[in-house]
């Protein structure tokens, strides 16, 4: 509980903001598994990121929040400064993920529009595949089979 109190003290004043994405720690609690749950409100370009828990929008004090779980093993043997830095680095990592997700949406749309959509209607087929065996797990292929859709196979000679 001492660790949770320490984190709560830090979390009440902590807010991270950069590159159009921000995170604010709203609440801290301990769950039934003894993990520390840090409830964080994330915003992208000033808009709250919604998080659903069991089909319901999760809000604390009117703010959309998402859980950040911290196991006891992550906190033990850390000084208060190290603990604060650990929390900061991990929450900033989540902010990075939100920025990347926005980028992926843009690049995926471009990729689909410019490349993949040209393949609509194209058919692909294959009648055989290669299966390799490393029976003794030494990194050297011991057997190769060419298997066919009709259920037959041909074993290739390996050196």
Low-confidence stretches: 4-19
Structural class: alpha+beta
Overall 3D geometry? extended
Q: What's the SSE pattern? A: HEEEEEEEEEHHEEE
Q: For the report, how would you describe the main beta sheet?
A: 5 strands, antiparallel
User: What count of domains describes the coordinates?
Assistant: 2
Strands, count = 12
Task: Name its key features.
159 residues, alpha+beta, 2 domains, 5-stranded antiparallel sheet, 3-stranded antiparallel sheet, 34% strand, extended
Blueprint (SSEs and pairs):
Layout: H1 2-11, E1 15-18, E2 21-30, E3 36-44, E4 47-48, E5 52-53, E6 56-57, E7 59-60, E8 63-64, E9 66-70, H2 72-75, H3 80-114, E10 128-133, E11 143-148, E12 153-156
Antiparallel strand pairs: 1-2, 2-3, 3-4, 3-9, 5-6, 7-8, 10-11, 11-12
Description:
By secondary structure, the protein is α+β, with helices and mostly antiparallel strands. The protein folds into two domains: 115 residues, no CATH class; 33 residues, no CATH class. Helices cover 31% and strands 34% of the residues. It is built from three helices and twelve strands. Strands 1, 2, 3, 4 and 9 form a five-stranded antiparallel beta sheet that branches. Strands 10-11-12 form a three-stranded antiparallel beta sheet, with no helix packed on it. A two-stranded antiparallel ribbon has the order 5-6. A hairpin with a 2-residue loop joins strand 3 and strand 4. The longest helix is centred in the middle third of the chain and has 35 residues. The N and C termini lie far apart (63 Å). The relative contact order is 0.12.
């Amino acid at each position: 509980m001492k660790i949770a109190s320490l984190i709560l003290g830090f979390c009440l004043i902590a807010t991270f903001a950069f590159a159009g994405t921000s995170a604010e720690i709203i609440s801290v609690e301990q769950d039934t598994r003894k993990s520390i749950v840090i409830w964080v409100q994330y915003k992208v370009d000033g808009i709250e990121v919604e998080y659903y828990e069991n089909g319901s929008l999760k809000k604390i004090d009117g703010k959309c929040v998402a859980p950040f779980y911290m196991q006891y093993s992550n906190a033990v043997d850390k000084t208060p400064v190290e603990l604060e830095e650990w929390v900061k680095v991990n929450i900033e990592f989540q902010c990075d993920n939100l920025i990347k997700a926005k980028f992926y949406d843009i690049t995926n749309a471009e990729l689909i529009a410019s490349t993949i959509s040209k393949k609509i209607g194209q058919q692909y087929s294959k009648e055989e595949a290669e299966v390799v065996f490393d029976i003794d797990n030494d990194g050297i292929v011991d057997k190769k089979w060419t298997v066919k859709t009709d259920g037959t196979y041909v074993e290739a000679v390996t050196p």
